[in-house]
Design brief:
13 helices; 341 residues; three-stranded antiparallel beta sheet; alpha/beta; six-stranded mixed beta sheet; 15% strand; globular
């Protein structure tokens, strides 16, 4: 092996181990292969899309081997990336940002959002019984459930910012945003305010509304959804080509779910998740319509604003948003859909 190759191998090894702070040295200028090489395997952590591909039949169009991992969310996917046990994951806006701050080089490769993010937010703020909160300005002096490094935590900071407040104007209570931790924390008066998502929104009011529990709309965008992958996976030409193919099918699966709500209710929400029809119908209505933009310009602008806000509030060093997007993938998802989308 030549000295140049030896040094190159050493550098890539250091990157994969997170030795270079806030650096994502990339082959992102290299063209993607037109065809996925034979023998390519991807380990994918995207359970919702996996189910959509299976139910829709789109899974038959995969030309490479997939090992599905029942993983989602930033903490799990980042941990799996570090262990080199995962090639791509499905997350919201925040994980790629915190991965970068924690010396894990990753890039976003696909993005979708809600057509009407204000009317169809992912989260609403739950208010504990007996607590008088009618708007974001009432957050001053309140105890707020906070999960740093996750979308819910960032929404709390953005809500405070929108009200002209900072984290110093409230008491942030660090709690994991898993399961029904937040509804229980509200009901037990452990916190005054907590961001609730999914069926917890409906269930919280049905269970504790008679006790005085309430909800507050935040009026902010909270809808980004991404696929992201480690830099070393994107630097592998075969795996990068497979990721491009997966992004196309991910986009088509997204559209299929929007167009087939009854099948999705039956097969996913009821059949796989075990939800009641009432909860399933609530989630379908609550989500609205998903769209996949063919430009990341606005996406990056909002992402940069989030980076700057988190850096200011949590003491991190801001960085250029371009560091966490692989622009080779910008047009791929939207191009896989009819122009009418």
């Amino acid at each position: 092996m030549t000295l140049a190759k030896t040094l190159g191998t050493a550098v890539l090894s250091l990157i994969s181990l997170g030795m270079f702070s806030n650096v994502a040295v990339a082959e992102t200028g290299a063209p993607l292969l037109d065809k996925v090489p034979s023998g390519t395997v991807l380990t994918i952590g995207d359970p919702v899309t996996q189910k959509a591909l299976e139910v829709s039949g789109l899974i038959k169009e995969l030309t490479f081997e997939v090992k599905w991992a029942n993983l989602s969310g930033g903490p799990q996917t980042s941990e799996a990336f570090r262990a080199h046990a995962l090639d791509v994951g499905s997350v919201a806006e925040i994980p790629s940002i915190f991965a970068t701050w924690n010396n894990l080089p990753v890039r976003n490769i696909a993005y979708r959002e809600r057509k009407d993010p204000i009317a169809n937010p992912i989260y609403r703020f739950g208010i504990a019984p007996g607590v008088d909160v009618k708007s974001l300005t009432d957050f001053r002096g309140k105890r707020i459930a906070f999960s740093p490094g996750q979308a819910q935590g960032t929404l709390v900071l953005r809500a405070l910012h929108a009200a002209g407040l900072t984290k110093k104007d409230a008491t942030l209570v660090e709690l994991p945003s898993t399961g029904d931790v937040y509804p229980k924390a509200l009901a037990s008066k452990q916190v005054d305010i907590a961001p609730l998502g999914g069926v917890n929104i409906r269930r919280y009011i049905s269970q504790y509304g008679s006790d005085g529990a309430s909800l507050v709309e935040h009026g902010l965008r909270d809808d980004p959804a991404h696929l992201y992958a480690p830099q070393w996976v994107l630097d592998d030409p075969a795996k990068a080509a497979a990721l491009a193919e997966y992004v196309r099918l991910w986009a088509r699966a997204t559209e299929w779910v929007d167009q087939n709500p009854e099948i999705w209710i039956k097969e996913y929400y009821i059949g796989q998740q075990g939800l009641s029809r009432e909860d399933a119908e609530f989630l379908i209505k609550f989500a609205g319509t998903q769209v996949i933009p063919d430009s990341w310009a606005d996406v990056k602008k909002r992402h940069q604003e989030t980076i700057n806000l988190l850096a200011s509030e949590l003491g991190y060093k801001p960085f250029d948003v371009e560091q966490i997007f692989d622009n080779r993938f910008e047009k791929i998802a939207a191009a896989a859909l009819p122009r009418s989308q």
